[in-house]
Amino acid sequence: MLNYTDKRRGLPTAVLPYLLVSVAPLCWAGNVVLARGVVDIIPPVAFAFWRWAVAFAVLVPFSWRYVKEDWKLAVKSWKIMVVLSLLGISAFNTLLYTAVHTTTAINAAMIQSTMPAMIILITLMLYRERITRGQAFGVAVCISGAFVVILRGRLGALFAMTFARGDLMMVCAVAIYALYSALLPKRPAIHPLSFLSLSFGLGTLGLLPLYAIEIAGGQTLAWSGAVILSILYVSLFPSVLAYFCWNRGVQFIGANRTGLFINLIPVFATILAVLLLGESLAMFHITGMLLIFAGLFLFNR
Prior knowledge:
This protein is 77% helix and 1% strand. By secondary structure, the chain is an all-alpha fold. It has one domain. The relative contact order is 0.22. The model is unreliable at 1-12 (pLDDT under 50).
């Protein structure tokens, strides 16, 4: 953890790390809201494919020298690199972009905010890490908040099995990204820019078969100004800028404190969805959000 001070002006800039780690969830919230807004003009796999292809092209000029230095080690660890790329790049975002076709941006963002709890459960299963009873209770409260959102606050939906398909897809997406996060410590010890570039490239390649199937099924991408701007946004902001700000924030204030800021995603997404998409905020949204935040607070205590 670093203490950052602007010595040239003599002004403490302790607020800078918190601004950095707030930019990332704002970008990721924008990703969810934009994905919901362009469901009629961009097929989901095409959106994911071009997002990572453009992000890879943007990042390569800055990371090439590191990639050359780390190439041998990356190839030696190709199995875990492929697994991480398919999980974190190919699968998660494709499921997210598909999910918003049948659920709201607000629901998608709130379910996504359960990711810290999901990571805890998966690391518990993979590594047998111990947690206290209080932490287990916090995880249970957090997940119950997600269920409130998924069920739309109607317990009868549980017995009638009338879940929105998009909500269930978001649960799968969160589980996949949680698995990706739990496996991250196994990644090779290469430069962060090398890891990002190789992950983006492998993830894009992993999407090629799905993209071909989508096109064969008649879902073709009609290029327009709105399509190009949307792809540029998700390639530059939720991909390159968000990762940079998030990683720098971890360097300054540590992973545990930074992780709490992921809970800003549903807050930002709700505001953006109401303002830009005209979505309505219901009482079950507020209840679910409060339960999720309460559960995360209890766990981190």
